[in-house]
Amino acid sequence: VLNTPSRIIRKIDLETDSIDTELEVLSSKIKIEEEYDEYSSGYWQNISLWNRSGCENNTLYSNFNEKGKKTGYCNLLPTITSIVEENFDLTYLKMVRVRTLKNAVLVPHRDFVELDDKVKYFRVFVPLNESKYAYHGDEHSVFRMRLGEVWYLNAALIHSAVNLQDNNRVHLCLDFAFDRDFHPSDIFLNPENFNVSHDVELVKRSVISDSEINRIIDGFSLGIDKHNFKDTLFFLSKIYYTYDISITTVYQWLVHICARSDNQELIEKSQKLQNFMLNHRTLNERFEF
Ligand SMILES: [Fe+2]
Predict the structure, then answer these.
(1) How many angstroms does the Cα of residue 155 sit away from the middle of ligand 1?
(2) Which of 64, 195, 200, 217 is deepest in the core (most CB within 10 A)?
(3) Ramachandran assignment for 42, one of left (phi > 0), alpha (psi -120 to 50 degrees), beta (any other)
(4) Ligand 1 centroid distance, CA of 262 (Å)
(5) Tens digit of pLDDT for each residue in 98-122?
(6) Span from the CA of 109 to the centroid of ligand 1 (angstroms)
(7) Distance, CA 111 to ligand 1 centroid (Å)?
(8) From the CA of 108, how far away is ligand 1's center (Å)?
(9) How far is the CA of 106 from the centre of ligand 1 (A)?
(10) What distance in angstroms lies between residue 215's CA and the mean position of ligand 1's atoms?
């Protein structure tokens, strides 16, 4: 199961009117200071509904044995909270976050590389609204998650996300951790709701030729410097959603661009970045751009 690509494992009928009212509350009443984040450009907000301590400020996933605890945000967002309680088995639920992405890109990365490999993680997303221009990609395909679909996200595969528009794309993100063998249907209150036969909305991307790729790399190599290195990463991470290239290409191109610009400092930085995002990092390690 854990090597399978991301896929839909259920659909939930959601009451859009009451959810939309709470999404208004979310965007108007809840202002939180965002932590420094090397993964994203644009607006990216995480609200914890369940976490280790029950304390609202805790938004980073960590490793722990006990059940996740509800935070004060559940009182502000009762409909969204009830989606979790009425559909999912809370026994192995560790963390629930409401994640907003607006005019932003999350760069290709692998999650959980810094966590314990004996624990069996299972992460699902449930879109709480429709965002026409918000996409996800992994090593297999590029797709759009639609309202109410329950998506298993294989965070051990390289993945990224984007919302090209200036609207709030809001997802529920649920993290389960099992200390035993499990079946994905175990996360549901009623395991019979597990169903993988739903159609996926795949995103069609344009073909790009080798000579066009060369022109992109040449062009960026003329302009790249330490001040726009991070912007270049975000730009390339968006290009992945336009052209039919593999998700790791973003970092290969960045390394080529830095090599062609002949800037030793940036060559090293781009190689370190690739390694940090895709292969190896320690718990709470950060990347200095
Ligand atoms: Fe991720």
Answers:
(1) 6
(2) 217
(3) left
(4) 32
(5) 999 999 999 999 886 566 667 788 9
(6) 6
(7) 5
(8) 8
(9) 8
(10) 30
Amino acid letter for position 90: L
> Token pair of 172, please?
């529920």
Distance 113 CA to ligand 1 centre (A): 11
Q: Are 98 and 30 in contact (CB under 8 A)?
A: no
Cα separation, 5 vs 152, whole angstroms: 8
Q: What is the pLDDT of residue 1?
A: 46
pTM of the model: 0.91
Tokens 């249907």 correspond to 185
Distance 160 CA to ligand 1 centre (A): 7
Burial track 100-116 (b if 16+ CB lie within 10 A, e otherwise)? bbbbbbbbbbbbbbeee
Ligand 1 centroid–CA 102 distance in Å is: 16
Residue 201 to residue 131: CA distance in whole angstroms: 13
Q: What is the pLDDT of residues 129-153, one digit of tens each?
A: 999 999 999 999 999 999 999 999 9
Alpha carbon of 110 to ligand 1 centroid (Å): 6
The answer on pLDDT for 33 being more than 80 is no
